[in-house]
Specification:
By secondary structure, the chain is mainly alpha-helical. It has seven helices and three strands, in the order ααβααββααα. Among the domains are: about 70 residues, Arc Repressor Mutant, subunit A; about 30 residues. β2 and β3 form a beta hairpin.
């Protein structure tokens, strides 16, 4: 079976319409994030989301897990899994809240500081390269669209 010329692998993508073209770009970013995250796991020992948690804990020593979950827009149980893996690897440490044993304050270890310092080949290195070249207005517009899209995706239909 031959492929139509408009769908040839080396041809530019067909115009799918504004919504589908935008969604196609979102999927491309998602795929690239996942691929880079797997590469980071091999190269520096943590995934993209794990490194993001390390970076936040390094900047805000003593931050409670609930604050990180809200910052990252993830369910606390999702964050719990990430924190357990990071703690098992010796990259972060938990200090129980003496007033509320259900809460813990998070800190970075020396080993975690080395991951925090790593830069090349990370998701944020790519993001930094792109945003450093983007005009401020374009960056602000993209941010507004992403905020609106995240809100629309979390709203019930």
């Amino acid at each position: 079976m031959t492929r139509p010329a408009s769908l040839a692998l080396d041809a530019p993508p067909p115009n799918l319409g504004e919504v589908l073209d935008f969604m196609r770009l979102i999927w491309a970013v998602d795929h690239a994030l996942q691929k880079t995250s797997r590469r980071m796991k091999s190269a520096i020992g943590v995934t993209g989301p794990q490194r993001l948690v390390i970076r936040i804990v390094a900047r805000f020593p003593g931050i409670p897990a609930g604050h990180i979950a809200r910052l990252l827009h993830v369910h606390p149980s999702t964050l719990t899994g990430i924190l357990k893996r990071l703690e098992r690897q010796g990259l972060i440490r938990r200090r129980p809240d003496p007033k509320d044993r259900r809460r813990a304050f998070l800190g970075i270890t020396e080993k975690g500081r080395r991951i925090d310092a790593a830069g090349a080949g990370t998701v944020e290195a790519a993001v930094e390269r792109v945003i450093s070249r983007a005009p401020r207005a374009k960056l602000e517009g993209a941010g507004e669209i992403l905020i609106d899209l995240a809100a629309a995706l979390t709203e019930p239909d």
